[in-house]
């Protein structure tokens, strides 16, 4: 057939069982708007039913062969299917001002509880060739109520130009458990004879829940009361959750409740400050879901009014820098407009300590002590480069203050620290060679003592200078040995010679040597050795 024409296929559904069976019918392999077939049929036991499958293709569909399948499924999951083929060929059949509509409802069946609702999506496809407006109507079971987000909708033609609307169907409390069919009808406003009705079902269970929030509108930093009621016919446990744009600032003491039928409990929702949203209205949504059947749930919403706020924070990244030599440290000052409205601010260096000279990088790259004005949108962060020059070893700080130009009371400041520890006086024995020379010993028989003379040479074997003061500690192995012409440190119990003073040097350069004499006095019966430690600035 030609694109745009209609074709009718005869589908035979046979029931081979000994009981009447209801089948759900569907067509796969073709665009859903092309195929029209009853969604359900009943077939007597050991009998068959003929069903018409109407296929109306889009006038602009591509020519070719289209395979499709018709499937019949029982509520127990027993299924059967048959394959068919559609061949499109020839010039498209285009009718002037043709009207047509196909409606589908997803899911085909949804679950609801006592007093709760089920949500569906209704899709409309205009199978005509002109824009058309469609009106909707619902056919619901007695006592049920339904809400469509749109009651009238303009839909352009074409299978890819479908429109979707939401449908919520609420079940009254006290409804018997079971399946309840309903239908959605779309009718052309320009041609009422053009309409399409689609069927769907609601599976009603014996479980149910209802939630109510009080107050239904309010402000941050408030307490809201959530009433949860078991509207079902059995004892049930409910999980409570919060959602919506205000949820990050809200908290619940309990998130699970066990309730008997008809029993209610009130929970407090604590809503804190909202520092993440612009001024306006936020939704705080509370949801209670049955753990026995998670499809059974209810929601309620409070509207939260967020006023204009102003605020600013400032933080150095990093907060402290340690230099290995005198020079410049750079810091990034993160400035956040913590208010929810755009603001203008001023940045200024308000003080320094220690041997520091500091400046900021201005808006045009210049060095400056003050940035008189810069703007930040609400809830955004900007950055300012701050540089601190430390002229010598030591520690210094630089403090920067941010002030709102519209509200001078809104300020923030932070302080960055720059450190240059400089050299440390420490044991540098591993950096030097120690060589004793010209050792001479004199015996004193009458006194029973021995005097030993040694010249000790210390050489810097590292690749960097060793700073003064440069000391040599002489440590005999026996306390009976005395070191002449050397000072004694009572705290360490060691003799020492100040080499830098002895040699008149300001540093011991790589390869440079210093020689100093050492005289040991000891009883003649004392054998001894000694160690030398060298300390300097490094």
Question: What report would you give on this structure?
Answer:
The protein contains one helix and 45 strands. The protein is mainly beta and about 550 residues long. It is elongated, with a radius of gyration of 45 Å. The chain is about 0% helix and about 60% strand. The N and C termini lie far apart (about 95 Å). Strand 37 (about 430-445) and strand 38 form a beta hairpin. The strands form ten sheets. Strands 36, 39, 41, 42, 43 and 45 form a six-stranded antiparallel beta sheet that branches. A five-stranded mixed beta sheet has the order 9-16-15-11-13, with no helix packed on it. The chain has a five-stranded mixed beta sheet with strand order 18-25-24-20-22, with no helix packed on it. The protein folds into five domains: about 5-90, Sandwich (Immunoglobulin-like); about 100-205, Immunoglobulin-like, CATH 2.60.40.2310; about 210-305, Immunoglobulins (Immunoglobulin-like, Sandwich), CATH 2.60.40; about 310-420, Immunoglobulins (Immunoglobulin-like), CATH 2.60.40.10; about 425-535, Immunoglobulin-like (Sandwich), CATH 2.60.40.10.
